[in-house]
Amino acid sequence: MELSINNVSKSYKQNKALSGFTLSFSPGVYALLGPNGSGKSTLMNIITGNLKKDSGVITYNGKDISKMGMEYLSLLGYMPQYPGIYLQFTAEEYLYYIAALKGVKDPVEQITEVLREVELDDVRSMKTSTFSGGMKQRLALAQAVIGDPKILLLDEPTAGLDPKQRIAIRNYISRISFNKIVIIATHVVSDIEYIAKTAIFLKKGVITDCGAPSELAKKAAGDVWSIRCGADEVTAYQNRYKVINIQSDGADVNLRVLSYTKPTDNAKPEAPTLEDEYIRVFAN
Amino acid sequence: MQDFGRNLKFELLKLLRNRMIIIVSVVLLTANMVAAYRLCDVENDAKTEYYAQGVAAVIKDAESRYGAEEGKNGFTARYYKMIADKYSKLRTDKEPEAVTGYGQYLSYIYVDLFLLSCCAFCAAFTFRREKETGEMQTLYAYKHGRRGYAAVKLTACAITTTVLVLLFCLSSFTGVFVRGGFVDFTGGGARLQDLKAFIYAPNEISVLSAVLVSVLYKIPVCIALAFFAGGVSYLFNSGALAAAVSAVFMYGSYMLNNRSYINKNAFLRNCNLFASIRPSNIFGELRCINVFGFAIPAYVVNIVLPLLLIVFFGAVFFELHLNRASVTIKLPKLKFKRKRKIKQAKPHGLFAYEFRKIFKSKLCVAVIALTLIAGAIVSVISVRAFPYPEQVYKKYCERWQGRYCYEIEDEYNAEQKKINDGFEAYSAMRYGRPVEGIDNPVQAADYYIANYEGFRLFREKYERLIELHEQDKDTPILFEGGYRRFFESGADIFLILSAVFLCTYLATYDRVNNTESVMTTTKKGRGKLPWIKFAALMTVSGALYAAFTLITFLPILFKFGMALPYADTYAVPGFEACGGMSLGRYVALMFILRFIGVVLLCLFCCGISSLIKNHITAMAATAWIYVIPIFLLKNAENKAARCVEPSLLLDGSGFMQLFSSPGAVAVSILICVVIPCILFIPFIRKVIKWNFR
Ligand SMILES: Nc1ncnc2c1ncn2[C@@H]1O[C@H](COP(=O)(O)OP(=O)(O)O)[C@@H](O)[C@H]1O
Ligand SMILES: [Mg+2]
Asked: Is domain A3-217 in CATH 3.40.50.300, yes or no?
C-alpha cells in the first residue's frame, strides 16, 4: 500500500501554496508540520481531490488516482480543518448519514464503537447544535474514521481540545493507524512527537525536512542551551537569541535558548526535542 | 468624533467593495429603468375635463357636511372645514393642461418594489456582515465598542438608503425620459392639479416641486424600513429567517399601498405607516386622521410617522447593541408538546436523509405551511367573487347546455322576447306610460331586472357561437366560467416562492453547513449525491405542485363546475389561439405544462445554487428573476410581450397564448427551457468533475 505524490504544485494566482511536493507514503502516521499558511491544508485538499492541482501526479499502488475514480474515494477518510456538521441532526444520525455516503454495509456496531472512542456515546442522541467546540471536533474525527479508510487525512484534528482529550485522541489515532496511511496536519508538535513515524516540515509549500521525529530532533543537537540568569537580563537574551522557553522561579530565570555557539559561559547544553528543531527551522 | 468619521468611511467602503452589493444595485436600478420605460404611457396624459365641477362638488359636499356638524367642534366638523378651506383656495378658473412625463413619473409605482428590495438588501448586509464573518465579538471587545459602533452602523445605513432613493428616482426619471416623456423639463409652469392623476390634490404646487417633495418624502420612510430590515437581520440567528421577516414587512407595506391588490380602503392607503413612499398617497385627495379630535392631514402624518419609526427602530437597535453581545431569537417552543422519548437513530438511505435535511428544519416546515395557507386563502378569496349576472348567465348556459346553437333558436327567441317585454313593462311603469299587451307587468319588469345583464352575456356568447358555426367550428354551449378562471389563474406566486426556497435551501445546504468538503471525499457523495439531491428536490417540488394545484383547482371546480370537457376551446373567449383542442385535453395540457415549469424551476434553482454560495442570495436571485416579470407583465396589452417571463410555463395558458406569433414562442422557449438547462450544467459538473486531472 503506497501513496506517492510526485512533483505536485499549486498556486493561488501569484501565491505559490505548494511547489514540487514529492513524497511517498506507506502505512503509518505522518505528521505534516508547518506554521499557518505553509500549505498543509492545500496538500490535504489536493490528496482528497477537492482541489485541482496545477501539475504533478498522485498515484496509489502505482495507479494514477484520477483514473481510479470511486475506487480511490472509498479509501479516503477526511477531517477538514474547519469541519461542518448538520446542526439539526443528532450525533448518531450524522454518523449514519456519513456511513451511508461512504457505502458502509453494516454501520451500527462500528458507529457505536467510534462514538465510544471519541467519548460521545452519552450524547449520541443529542442534536449537534447543543455541542461544544471540542465535541464537534471529536464528532468530525469520528466521521473521518468510519468505514475503516485506508488513507486517513486529518487537518488539525486536535484544535480546540483540552489536554485530556488531546491525549485520548492521540492514542486513538495511534491505535487505529495499523495498516493505514494516516496524515496529520498540525502546528502543535507535541501532538505527534511520539506517535508519528515520519515528520514532514513544510515551509511555504516546500519540504524542508523529513524523517523520523527522533532523527529530526537530533539535528538540533548542540544548538540548545539552558541559561540561568536574572530577570532583568531576559530581554537582552531575547534580542540576541531565539528563546524557546522562559521559566521563572521567583528570584532567577531559566532560559531555553537556541544558539549555534555557546551563548555564555554558564550555559549548559540540553538534549534537543522535536519542538526545538521546529523552532530552529521556522524561526526566521 | 474623529473615530466616528473614520469608522463611517470604513463602513461605507465595505459596502462599495462588495461585488454582490454592486451587482444587485445595478441590476435593480436597470430593472427599474426598464420597467419605467415600458410601463410609462406617454399618450395617456390627456387633458382632463370637468376639473372645475369636480372641485366645486368636493367643496359643496364638504360645506354641507360641515353645516350639519357645525357647533359640535369635533373631528368631523374640523375635517370638512379643512377640506372646504383647502379646496376653495385652488384655482379652478382655468382647466388643466395636458402635461406629459411628470404625471407618468409620479404615478409610476414599481419603483417602490425595486427601491425597497435594494434598501433591505444593503441594510441586511450592513448589519449582518460582522455576524456572519464572526467578527462581532471582536468588535464588541473594543474600547469604544458598542455605542459608537451602533451609531456608525445606523448612520452608514441612513446614508446608503438616501443615496439609493436618489439613484432610484433618477433611474425611473431616466426611464420615462428615454420614452420621450418629457416634452418640457420645466413642466411649463404647470401645477400639480394639471396632472391627470392628481387633479384633486389639495395643495397648489408646481409639478417640479411635487417631484422634489415626493423624493424627499421617500427618504425617511426608506430609512425607517432599512433600519427595520437591518435590525431584524441582526436579531435573528438564521439569515433566511431574517430575510423572510423583512420580506413580509417590505412587501406587506408595498401591498398596503397598492390599490389593486389588497387594500381597497382609501383611508388605509393614504394613512398607513409607509404611505409616504408613494406620491399618489401624499398628493392624492385630502385625507385626515383623527388625533385627539384634531384633523391632521395625511401628508403631515406621512412625514411624522416615518421619523418616529426611525427613532424607534434606531433606539431598539441601540438597546440591543448595548445590552447583549449577540441576541438570538428562537422560535417559541410549543408548551403542550409531549416530552419525546429519545429514539435511537437507525441507518437510512441517502434519499431519506435529503428529506430529513428539509423536514428537520423548522424554517422549511414553516415556509411550506405558510405558503400553503397563503395560497389557499388567496385562491379562496379569488373564487369568492361570483357576480349575480354571471350566475344568471350560468343558468342560461345550463339550460341549453351542450345543444348546438341553431337547435335552440326558438327557445332563445322566446326568452329574448320575454326580456324585451319586461323592458317595455319596466320603462312604461317608470315613466308612467300605460302598459299594453302584457298580462302581469310587475312580474315582467322584475324578470327583466333580474335577468337582463345575464342574458346580455349569454347573447354575446350565442352570437359568437353562431359566427363560429358559420366557419364550421361547431361548439356546444357550456358555462365556461370555471375553465376561464382556471386558465387565467396564472403562475402561482406562492408555489414559486416555496419551491425556490426549498430548492435553494437543499441545494446549498451542504455548502452552507461547511460539510461539502467531506461529502465530496466519499464514494457516493461525489457521484451519486447530486442526483439524489435532485431527485429529492423533484419529489418535494412535485408534491408542492400537486398541493398548490389542488388548492387552485378544487375551489374553482366546486364553485363554478367544469362541464363538457369534450367541447372545444373555442367555447372559452380569449383562448381561441388553441382552438381545435378539447377543453379536457387543454386542462390536462395545462397540468403538464405547469409541471414542466416546476421541473425547469428546479433546474434553475439547482444551477443558481451551484453558482452562488449563500442560500439567501441564491434564493433572492431566483425569486426576483421569476416573480418580478410576473408583476410587470401580467397586464401587458400585447400578450406576446410575456414571452420574456421565465415563469411562463408555470402559467401554462400564458404560454399557449403565445402561439399566434412563432417568434415569441422561440424567445419563450429560450428563456423558460434553454436557460434553466444551461444553468443546470454547473450542477452536473459537480458530479462529473473530478478535479483529479
Ligand atoms: N482559497 C484560497 N485562495 C487564495 N489563497 C489561498 C486559498 N487557500 C489558501 N491560500 C493560500 O495558500 C497558502 C497555504 O494555505 P493553507 O494550505 O491553508 O496553509 P495551512 O493549512 O498550512 O495553514 C497560504 O498562503 C494561503 O494564503
Ligand atoms: Mg490549514
From this structure: yes
